[in-house]
Amino acid sequence: MHVSRQSVAAALPGVALAVAVGVVATLVGRAVPVVGGPVPAVVLGAVVGWLVRRRRQDDGGQRGLGPLQPGVTFSSSRVLQFAVVLLGAQLSIAEVLRIGGETLPVMLSTLVVCLVAAWGIGRLLRVSGPLRTLIGVGTGICGASAIAAVTPVIGAVSADVAYAMSTIFLCNIAAVFVFPLVGHALGLSQHAFGVFAGTAVNDTSSVVATATVYGRQATDTAVVVKLVRTLMIIPIVVGLAGLEARRTARTQLAPDTGPRPGPRVFRLVPWFLVGFLVVVLLRTTGVLPADAAPGFAAAATFLITVALAAIGVSTDFGALRRAGFRPMLLGIALWVLVAGTSLGAQAVFGLL
After folding, report:
1. What is the distance of C-alpha 136 from the center of its chain?
2. Given phi > 0 = left and psi -120 to 50 = alpha, else beta, which region is 229?
3. Burial of 269 (0-12, 13-18, 19+ CB in 10 A)
4. CA-based max dimension of the chain
5. Could you say which DSSP state residue 89 is in?
6. 218-238 burial, b if ≥16 CB within 10 A, otherwise e?
7. What pLDDT does residue 86 have?
8. Within 32-143, where are the H helices?
9. How far apart are the first and last CA of the chain?
10. Per-residue pLDDT reduced to its tens digit, 178-219
11. Euclidean distance between CA atoms 240 and 154, whole angstroms
């Protein structure tokens, strides 16, 4: 991908802000180890973002982050993705296969419960079909990535996408704060909490952040579980495309122009998860020495803190308020159901 000097220059202010907040949050985490760096990063970032928006409004500018936006967007997405790649240095192929295999029943249970509940509760709340589908796949699979993959298949309008993204974002932020408290209250082991975070938190960034607060072993497990969970995008998109094509054919509207996800399916797996597996392979074959793992882990933790600082800065409380009550209630209900199903399934399958 070609990156111009102009785009780099445009991103620098926002990246610098995210790094600065990340450094402060890291120092807070060192001073109060039980809190860690990621949670203060979200809180400090949200405060800074609110102050920036308030200052721009007072100066007569438009809403938003202005020149900070490109760098903040880059930090909240790409920086986090690089951090996930680095986390692969702590795992081997055998561990990935073991963790993925033993947690697959939990992942499938949470996905089925989430999709069925999205349909049923969404109808009771009178949430539109496309919107409840977006919230359902976003909660059940991988947040914004799943929403982005499903949107063109079901023909969702931009307003529905915005509502779904806002709802998922709210639950992501809540998970970073609430889930570690739940884990400690229940006495979950590092492995059990990693499975919990990997199956019950929506977005990759929040999965990593939530698990990082709990511990390194929890983070390793959560990343692998999330990796396997993300692959569920492919059958879900193919299935929705088939349903949409059948619906189009039944209504006799452009029967030959239904969604064709064929080539797109192969691009649904995010690049950073492929990168994660490549680093795991390098670690397994010894190309990447075991002694390097702690350094990679420290770098990944700091990048996660920077990314969460940017996510905090990106928080637009006005947009969350405008998202409306019913979609938000649906998202929260699904979030609670998936969390409960994850813990219940772990108990049933002997993983707790």
Report:
1. 14
2. alpha
3. middle
4. 65
5. G
6. bbbbbbbbbbbbbebbbebbb
7. 85
8. 38-58, 69-74, 80-87, 93-124, 129-137
9. 44
10. 999 999 999 999 999 999 999 999 877 788 888 988 988 999
11. 7
